[in-house]
Task: structure prediction
Amino acid sequence: MTLSIRPATVADIPALCAWNAAMARETEGLELDPAVLERGVHGVFERPQRGLYLVAERDGAAVGGLLVTYEWSDWRNGDYWWIQSVYVLPEARRDGVFRALYAEVARRAREARAASLRLYVEAENRRAQRTYAGLGMRPSHYAMYEQVL
Result:
């Protein structure tokens, strides 16, 4: 079976929304507001400077995707590329889909001269942490704080 990675299009919005909702449910037990989620996904296509969605296809069927967003670093004079909204269909997991998505993000980031690749991971999600470490990522020395507005 052939696996390919491509930029998402507006035709992928229903799948991207479904994947985001499933990921929030699986990882945090959250039920996202579908209307807010759809506007949020549309927002990336409306303003490409916000980010880029990539979709993984196996034999022409979409099996997963992710979002890359950008954060400017004056210290590094470049963008940090944040990998977000990662989702792979359950039946396609542990089959190289995320690895292929990550490789494409890394290729694009190098080409764009990004400062680094970053992502958030749940503190207790050891399986994901092992996956990221296996790709060469390392834990950051930063802790994250947040105030929801």
